[in-house]
Amino acid sequence: MSTGKSDRGNETRELLLVTAERLFAEYGVEAVSNRQVSEAAGQSNNFAVGYHFGTKDDLVVAIVRCHSESVERRRTDMLAEITSSPDLRDWVSCIVRPLTEHLASLGSPTWYARFIAQVTTHPAYRERVVNEAVSTRSMQQTLEGILRLAPRLPEEVRQERSYMGRLMIVHMCAERERALHEGTAPPRSTWESTAAGLVDALVGVWLAPVTARR
Amino acid sequence: MSTGKSDRGNETRELLLVTAERLFAEYGVEAVSNRQVSEAAGQSNNFAVGYHFGTKDDLVVAIVRCHSESVERRRTDMLAEITSSPDLRDWVSCIVRPLTEHLASLGSPTWYARFIAQVTTHPAYRERVVNEAVSTRSMQQTLEGILRLAPRLPEEVRQERSYMGRLMIVHMCAERERALHEGTAPPRSTWESTAAGLVDALVGVWLAPVTARR
């Protein structure tokens, strides 16, 4: 009996997560209330989000965690494979491919890329999401690998390029996800070639000479 | 008398534009209603936006037009100066600097960069905004200059890199504007050096070799 109750609890939790991800992806985190998430998930209790997750902030982080474990695992595996590769492309791939491969593994439609684009554009949510999804151990290791192989860059340029890379990955994936969902022709035919385009461009960003400082 | 009335009309219009830009920049276009814009602008008539602009779509485009004339003029002047320069940096500068110089000319605080980041992330507004602000004659000329000097790229890669460049410019400018507004240390100390960092990175993106197609 107590197991049955907990199963139902998990099902409700799962349903709320999937519903919130979709609504946030389509309308933005600000535009959707916890109450609307509960209603759209068919919960008679309008406080279901509060009961299962706490604040909207906590809900956003819970959605990120649903995905970040798989992304992290893929990155850790890739890092183990490239060990101490002297090729910058290998390290840049470890930034890009864990996310694109995760998205490919979810089938269609996905909402996560658009969700991430929304929350990382929003000042109130960005910091926690970035901490959850980007400032992980495997991501730090990857970034160290890139910095070892990129030309020597001033600290503010490192930060700038790292941020630019994140922007490119997040928004290009969101763009492709949206095109797939709307049935319009996506710019690239597969997640694999989306990743290839991103890796090419990001290698270009990291190798670009610095002509002026501060 | 009729002049006075029209002056007041222009003042109201101006006030609504400034208020809408600020609210859209801070909360997103979706989260703010025309009624809230009218109220925040101190209009007793809640339909002031409708009366002066029409739909929210029209209001968004009107805000873009407030700025795009100055941005366009700067770009046209820059293009006249570089004429047929063989240096890719000059052409990439014509993408970046007209916006950063316009933002610098507005003093502080500005809202336009965050406004543009919000509307270009939003599927419903993006197309019209991109058409207004990006698909202009001077921008087309600039892009042609870049493509003349960049290595030969497949059409989908051209589009992809052009889109990546837009993302980088819009979000880096929005980021800096937000930091200035919140009084936190912006990554670069001036709009001028923000532009320099963007030009460096964008030249890297355009020169990056293509390793895989579609």
Describe this structure in words.
Helix content of chain A is 76%, strand content 0%. With 214 residues, chain A is an all-alpha fold. Chain A has 2 domains: 1-54, Arc Repressor Mutant, subunit A; 62-207. In chain A, helix 4 (56-82) packs across helix 8 (137-149). Chain A is elongated, with a radius of gyration of 19 Å.
Percent range for helical residues of chain A?
over 70%
Radius of gyration of chain A: 19 Å
Order of helices and strands of chain A: HHHHHHHHHH
Structural class of chain A: mainly alpha
Describe the largest sheet of chain A: none
Q: What portion of residues of chain A belong to β-strands? A: under 5%
The residue ranges of chain A in which pLDDT falls below 50 over 5 or more consecutive positions are none
Task: Indicate the overall shape of chain A.
Answer: elongated
Task: Please tally the helical runs of chain A, counting DSSP H or I stretches of 4 or more residues.
Answer: 10
Assembly context of the chains: homodimer
End-to-end separation of chain A in angstroms reads 64 Å
Biggest interchain interface, per-side counts? A-B, 45 and 45 residues
Task: Give average pLDDT of chain A, whole number.
Answer: 91
SSE arrangement:
The structure is a homodimer of 214-residue chains.
Chain A: H1 2-27, H2 34-40, H3 48-52, H4 56-82, H5 88-105, H6 112-121, H7 123-133, H8 137-149, H9 155-182, H10 191-207
Helix pairs in contact in A: 1-2, 1-4, 1-6, 4-5, 4-7, 4-8, 5-8, 5-10, 6-7, 6-9, 9-10
Question: Can you give keywords for this protein?
Answer:
214 residues; mainly alpha; Arc Repressor Mutant, subunit A; 2 domains; 10 helices; 76% helix; 0% strand; elongated
